[in-house]
Known about the structure:
Distance between the termini: 27 Å
Largest sheet: 3 strands, antiparallel
Number of domains: 2
CATH architecture of the largest domain: Up-down Bundle
Structural class: mainly alpha
Oligomer: single chain
Order of helices and strands: HEHHEEHHHHHH
Amino acid sequence: MTLSSLSVQRSKSLYEQTYEALRASILSGDLAPGQRLVETQLAERLQVSRTPIREAMRQLQRDTLVTADSSGGLRVASLSVEDVIQLYDCRLALEQFAVQRACQHATPEQVRSLEQLVAQSETLSKSQTEYSPEMLDLDYRFHRLIAESSGNRWLVSLLDQVFDKMALLRVQTTRRNPRVLEIRQEHRQIFETIQTGWRSRSEADITAAVAAIRTHLIASQARVTQEVENLQHGVDG
């Protein structure tokens, strides 16, 4: 879905609809990291006045999805190596806890859904070698479902904030190097350890599941950090 194809529905305020349209375009990559945002152009494309555009941009700045450049213009945020490290540190803290609780509180339906997501990503990875929004969506849904399976709604809310920034980061990196996202083999291992811990409820098996998510996130952190460093230095992937 591209920005030009989005229409502003009048059932909500113009500000809300404009904000949602711009946010979706940023997180999908239609508005690319580093891209300059011009009020008049955005207003024309969304067929609204500049006032809701301006209000939406202020909210996107508060969300840290839009930043001001040195000339005072606004651009889609680009994340730094430090951002990568800090985001993954947050994920490590939250998702290890999510896996532990998922082993204890997941429903049978949630466990089956996790397995289905793994199977879908395996099928998709066999047919696609390039950047795939579908693959990114499966990755997000897998990790979010683990959080939901913990039974802790506040944990899910906190992770959602992190996942927004991760979506921006993935747009920034995977288009250039789709290999930075490795979910097929690592997600299968995470699922199997969660399933084992969920069935046995033994401390050793739950610890193994937590170790699996930690290994996955540390490996992902290293890949993404390297890719962002390459981007900053203009190194080919």
